[in-house]
Amino acid sequence: MPMATTPDSPAAVIFDLDGTLVDSQSAYLAAEQQALAHFGYHHFTAADHAEFVGVGMREMWQRVVATRRVAAGADELLELSNRLYLAGMRRSVPLHRGTVHLAELLHEAGVPLAVASGSSRQVIDTVLTAGRLDRLFSVCVSAEDVPRGKPDPAVFLEAARRLSVPADACVVVEDATAGVVAALRAGMRCIAVTGAAARGCPQAVRSGRLLTVEHTDFDAPELLRRIGAAKTVTAPRARKTPG
């Protein structure tokens, strides 16, 4: 049975999708490289991809087209890369088990959950369904739903609005710096699931608004205690779950 939240416990939790719930970066890189190769460009590396982690897909392709000699428009590349990516996700969805476990515990306790992602609605729906995660989330906000992507806070503020929860009562779970910055700008607390995502936000770490963990050392019940939700989620302590 869920309990009423305290001032310190979250009224809702908002999850990023790619890199947070789903280990998708290698699949995105492969799809991006294949899409560019289709138009004759063969020089997009893992380092190039890393430059855009946390950035919305449409914005990413707009920047790629603006800075590289690619014989295609951003919309063409977005459509083709999405198609290639979704084909791979339908075959197999590589989940980050620790963050999924966290979402399951919160869902079982009745804590409202949302996904807020820079991906398209089609990508979000396909990945959540294929990964059997769709049952956990009552709200999904995509790149099409907001005027600007992360690090602008719009996607998280829209998720809070749809959940009917004040922004400052939400906790965000993120893997990328742009998403962490967006969450903090929205006035929300944030859990960064990679240490690198928290760089540049030392004041938020010191104030307790930003917690850092690693996918490889993820203890969902302990994390619930740290964000003040342990009383809401009455689950036995579990062993650490690798991502």
TrEMBL record:
Pfam families registered for this protein in UniProt: HAD_2 (PF13419)
Record flagged with keyword Hydrolase: yes
Keywords linked to the UniProt accession: Hydrolase
SUPFAM superfamilies documented for this protein: HAD-like
Lineage: Bacteria, Bacillati, Actinomycetota, Actinomycetes, Kitasatosporales
Gene Ontology MF term list: hydrolase activity
Top-level taxonomic group: Bacteria
Keyword Hydrolase part of the UniProt annotation: yes
InterPro entries in the cross-refs: HAD-like_sf, HAD-SF_hydro_IA, HAD_2, HAD_sf, PGP-like_dom2
Protein name per its UniProtKB record: Hydrolase
